[in-house]
Amino acid sequence: MKVKITKIYELIRSVVKIKSMSVFLQILIFLIHPFYVSVTKVTYNDATHRLEVSCKIFTDDLEKALKQGLEQKPDLKNNERLEQNDLLIQNYLASRLKITLQKVDVGLEYLGFEHEEEATIIYFESTQAFKRPQEVAIYNEILTEVIPDQLNFVHYFQGDFHKSYQLSRKEKTIKWMLP
């Protein structure tokens, strides 16, 4: 009987070792393989009848995209280059983030950006007011030209209504009918 228990114990120990090694390898692979995401939040403000938009993007990835066509790498954390950085961000996002309400293009006014740890958060507001929209389409191809695996999460809020979707290089637009 003691031999049986010892063999079962040894079997359990080897399984635990294998499982521990497997978990370790999974964690190691996760740490080695980077992930590329941005988060865009679009909120319809019932009081002002405008859209409020924020985009949260990893700073190093955004700088990589902004560098396209420039001789030197942008430095978004350098406050002495604030005007130049504002212009770079505005020009970059103007063609990569578009919103339509009721099939009408929404003009977005750039409000500025700030840093949060390793991310840059960029703020916009719609230039025109809209009656409570019944349909929204959001086009987002942020960073997809420089990072093939880029995922862009989009969240839309309107009163109690909330929808989220994941866009990518292959799928750049989401359209929702609203309550």
Give structural notes.
The protein has two domains: 33 residues; 144 residues, no CATH class. The longest helix is centred in the first third of the chain and has 31 residues. Strand 1 and strand 2 form a beta hairpin. It has 179 residues and is of the alpha+beta class. The chain is built from three helices and ten strands; from the N terminus they run αββααββββββββ. The termini are far apart. Helix content is 29%, strand content 39%. About 3% of the residues have low confidence.
In the predicted model, the low-confidence regions spanning at least 5 consecutive residues are 14-19
Spatial order of strands in the largest sheet: 5-6-2-1-8-9
| Largest sheet geometry | 6 strands, mixed
Relative helix content: 25-40%
Number of domains: 2
Structural class: alpha+beta
Overall morphology: globular
Run of helices and strands? HEEHHEEEEEEEE
- pLDDT averaged residue by residue: 86
- Compute the separation of the termini in Å: 69 Å
Task: Work out the strand percent.
Answer: 35-45%
The protein's oligomeric status is single chain
Tally of extended strands? 10
Work out the helix count: 3
- State Rg: 23 Å
Secondary structure layout plus pairing:
Blueprint: H1 2-32, E1 37-45, E2 50-58, H2 59-66, H3 82-94, E3 97-101, E4 104-105, E5 108-116, E6 119-126, E7 135-140, E8 151-158, E9 161-168, E10 173-177
Parallel strand pairs: 1-8
Antiparallel strand pairs: 1-2, 2-6, 3-4, 3-7, 5-6, 7-10, 8-9
Attribute tags:
179 residues, alpha+beta, 2 domains, 3 helices, globular
